[in-house]
Amino acid sequence: MINHWLNPRKLVEQETNGRGNWQHSDAPFPRSMLKALEEDLYIPIPSEILSVYQKWRPTSFRRVEGWERFLGSETPIYIKDEGDSLLGSYKLNTAIAHAFYAKCDEMEGLVGETLAGHWGLSMVFACKQFGLKALIVVHHSIAQEKKRFIELIAQLGGEVLICHEAGDALETSRAMALSLARERGWGYAVGCSFDHVLMHQSVIGNELIQQAEERNLKISGVISCCGSGSNLGGIALPILQHYQKNNLTLPVIYGGVSDPRALSSDMKAKGLTGHNLSRIMEANIRQNKIILQQISIAEAAQAARSFFAEEGILVAPESSYGLAAAERILKEHAKKEMTGILVICISGRGYWD
């Protein structure tokens, strides 16, 4: 099992000669968690976190031949399946770390907001592993839609508060969560965007490198959904670092993003609605190391249906955007086979969405 994270802050500092501006917000994150970002490029994962990770890690890396045949792809298609997580979501990779470091800092509990529901559930479960309390803020506009997640959060002993503020669901619920964290003297936990989250999620890409090398497979392309960039960054940043360090041909990395023109109240992939990309991911996109594909709701839904029919896996709504991006890219390469394999990162399952 992989026992280290990649420090994305150090990775970008290398490329900018240390000129990056890495100031954190004033959110009350666990200080020991942020301190880890001041260390080396590769950071040992604490044994207490590894002991929880080993319940489901490493996650599966396998070929999806049924969907491959359905698409008529000459390129072998593999998935790195984060749906193997205990709760069916990659969010647990960082939730466990948040809770561990909060315990190290002697915090009583953590507060966070959730849109899709997976982050809230993962956060409560993680807190339970380290004897912490957990409070999850859910915006009133999605509370009924996420009723099942709210029930599960309560079953795990988490407290749920409904935000009734008017305005953007993410912004208002986040403001309420931050206010409550400061009021209670608890830590704040977030599952996307920030440097420390990308660090925790790098376990995905580090595992993929090892799994591909063990099978002597060459990766030609990597694809994932992309909202704030934590799922895409988790698989992409270690790949970029490894291939550059070893002077290998870089795989083409794609992110499937929701088309901003199509965002609406019936948008099911709540985790992609923010379009608040992390600074590190933005830097790689500007350098053309990562290419974003704008995907419509219809494209994403169709890809999810065909994948479910062929592979028996109902992916989280967000992951359907990665599948649709893969389908589009394979069509573009129909007349010329890739020289290696294409890997799609599945962020989680969609059975509760």
Question: Could you characterize the architecture of this molecule?
Answer:
- The protein has helices at residues 8-15, 31-35, 47-53, 65-71, 92-104, 118-129, 140-143, 147-155, 169-184, 195-214, 230-245, 279-286, 297-311, 319-332; strands at 4-6, 42-44, 60-63, 77-81, 109-113, 133-139, 159-163, 187-188, 219-225, 252-258, 290-295, 341-346.
- It is an alpha/beta fold and 353 residues long.
- It folds into 2 domains: 4-45 and 91-188, Rossmann fold; 57-89 and 201-346, Rossmann fold (3-Layer(aba) Sandwich).
- Strands 3-4-12-9-10-11 form a 6-stranded mixed β-sheet, sandwiched between helices.
- β5 (109-113), α6 (118-129) and β6 form a beta-alpha-beta unit.
- The longest helix is centred in the middle third of the chain and has 20 residues, at 195-214.
- The protein is globular, with a radius of gyration of 19 Å.
- The model is unreliable at 15-23 and 262-267 (pLDDT under 50).
